[in-house]
Amino acid sequence: LKRQGWQVYIDETAGHVAIEGDHLLRSSEHKGTRTRKANRWWELRHNELVREFKTLQTPDATLDATAGNEDWVLHLTDLHAGDRVRRDDGTVVYSTDEIPDVIDYATRQALSLADKHNSTYDAAHLLWGGDLVTNEGIYEGQFEDLDAWLDEQVDALHAPLIRQLKAFAERFPVVNVVATTGNHGEMRASGTSRQANADLLVYKSIRNTVAALQQEGLLENVRFRIGQAKAYRNFPLRGGALRGHLRHGENRRPQAETSARLKEWLATLQDHEFNVGYMGHHHVSGRIPWDGPPVIVSPSPKPAGEFVERLGERVRSGKQGVATAHGVS
User: Fold this and answer.
1) Which of 8, 145, 163, 201 is the one with CA 20 to 30 A from 127?
2) Which residues pair with 287 in a beta bridge?
3) Nearest to 1 by CA among 13, 23, 24, 17
4) CB-based burial of residue 118 (10 Å sphere; 0-12 exposed, 13-18 middle, 19+ buried)?
């Protein structure tokens, strides 16, 4: 089989031999083997996107502000494409196949809320907060929770996020896409840089698509900014009169309940002088209770698990949050 070009998986302990990729069992490979494959695929795909972008220009548009108008914001984070979540009885309650519908729902609801808010808007800001993919080999036993490999995770996100961007571009004068990476996207092989993050494959693929369309005179009102090696991305609101601060959130708590946590947020405020902050990661929603500028903590549409229980922040009603949308004046 090997001489014929097949990739053969051999488990000598179990006396099992199989052709890799001939079935859908996600745990059929050792973690190290699968992680090396994911890292290699990331490298090849990322290099391809970089080469492609050399012939394109960064999507850009002018952000203006008119007195009395507003900006509209949608913060979408922690989709975890690739995860499959089951109840105790085995019922699947979250899977990769559902994610396009989740994104389309967030898009429709955000636009509907903008209409109900009944304001005149100068710009919309699409904030993609990281962990859009769940990746592979991030924690022990993750392969048992997967229903899609990394390439499939990236593919599942592309079309619905493009639809979201196009819908916003039709509704608002300017759309500012701001994207930051999450901790699940990290490619954890030795020798990889902080920029080796699977979320970047999603963002750069969509950026390249938008850049190519702009060359054809389409989506010319879209601006695209991607955060890479840093844990945050600052961006202008209201034509630059205000500053937004977007981070994934793995190095911040969604509270400021102790002096140490309060100092973290005060240091963040001093470093970035933001007017509105956004974070995810913790799969809870709300606003950090402190005397500083508003910091919005957005939920994950993935059903809450043990991590949220440890935080003690599970929503009492049992309602599952999806995203955050609001106006800025």
Assistant:
1) 145
2) 296
3) 17
4) exposed
Give the H/E segment covering residue 71.
strand 70-76
CA–CA separation, 176 and 72 (whole Å): 10
User: Which residues 6+ apart lie within 8 Å of 174 measured at CB?
Assistant: 61, 62, 63, 64, 122, 123, 124, 221, 222, 223
DSSP code string of 8-23: EEEETTTTEEEETTSS
How deeply is 312 buried, as exposed, middle or buried, from its count of CB atoms within 10 A (0-12, 13-18, 19+)?
exposed
Residue 83 · residue 147 · CB < 8 Å: yes
Bridge pairing between strands 324-328 and 16-19: unpaired
pLDDT in tens, 110-155: 999 999 999 999 999 999 999 999 876 555 555 566 778 888 889 9
Instruction: Report the 3 state secondary structure along 191-215.
Output: CCCCCCEHHHHHHHHHHHHHHHHHH
Identify the helix (H) or strand (E) that includes residue 128. Answer: strand 121-128
Burial of 76 (0-12, 13-18, 19+ CB in 10 A): buried
pLDDT in tens, 51-83: 999 999 999 999 999 999 999 999 999 999 988
- Distance from C-alpha of 315 to C-alpha of 285, rounded to nearest angstrom: 8
Alpha carbon distance 128, 246 (integer Å): 9
DSSP label of 278: E
Per-residue DSSP letter, 244:
E
Q: Which residues of the chain have pLDDT under 50?
A: 21-28, 189-194, 307-317
At residue 126, the 3 state secondary structure works out as: strand
